[in-house]
Amino acid sequence: MATNFSQYLFLWIFVAFCSYLVRFSSCQPSGYSQAVATFYENPTSPGSGGACGLENDVASAPYNAMITAGNQALFKQSSGCGACYQVLCTQDQNPHCSGNPITVTLTDECPGACNNDPVHFDISGIAFGKLAKSGEASQLYNAGRISIFYQRIACNYNTNILFKVDKGSNPNFFAVTSEAVDGDGDLSLVEIQTSNSTWVPMQRMIGATWSVGIQPDTQKPPFSLRLTSETKQSVTAPNVIPDGWQPRSIYKSNVNFPSNL
């Protein structure tokens, strides 16, 4: 009798465990992986572009606060800056989740405790609320930390690449941040060509900001910029930085990458 009871108990546990696995696998969208998400500061926070050099530009177009910081699995010592991700949470993860995906751009680092998780997104307060069902964002904010699904996707900003001259630039030192980069979003190389020089590789200064020393007597504007993506695609923005350029100014190119990975 005891043996039969033990067999039935084992069978019940086995069936329950299998049912859990089936249920879990069926609720995970195809192509997505698991991660943890938190949010910046408060529900109205647009997030930050700090560790990627985008500063407060993330609050306005083309990012419109749909951004995220990431732990090292995503930030990758700053080489992950600019990558785009589709994230969502289901009702199985939190009853206030809509299950509808949103797209965010990686613009900052989530250091410290974020690296206790294999993959951790620290999403802007504004974007985090968009994961919730209509009228239930406050409950999701109250949760603070939730499980999500994510997948890497191509960036598509419906505009050409923008180049913001870094505030520290001067006649002897030039630094520039690339914004609204389609496709991979993240860059492996930026090169500069002055009016009378060959292509010169720039150095990654911080995230999406790259810099180079300039000899103002011989390396004169306009400057052309050539960008190479993570997957080694390249685009060239000819003469995009004009004579008389100014720090903090933004110059719009007439090029971008294809919107695919």
UniProtKB/TrEMBL annotation:
Coiled coil: none annotated. PROSITE patterns: EXPANSIN_CBD, EXPANSIN_EG45. SUPFAM superfamilies: Barwin-like endoglucanases (SSF50685), PHL pollen allergen (SSF49590). Residues 1-27 form the signal peptide. Residues 49-160 form the Expansin-like EG45 domain. Residues 172-253 form the Expansin-like CBD domain. Transmembrane segments: none annotated. This is Expansin-B2. The lineage of its organism: Eukaryota, Viridiplantae, Streptophyta, Embryophyta, Tracheophyta. The gene is LOC107801818.
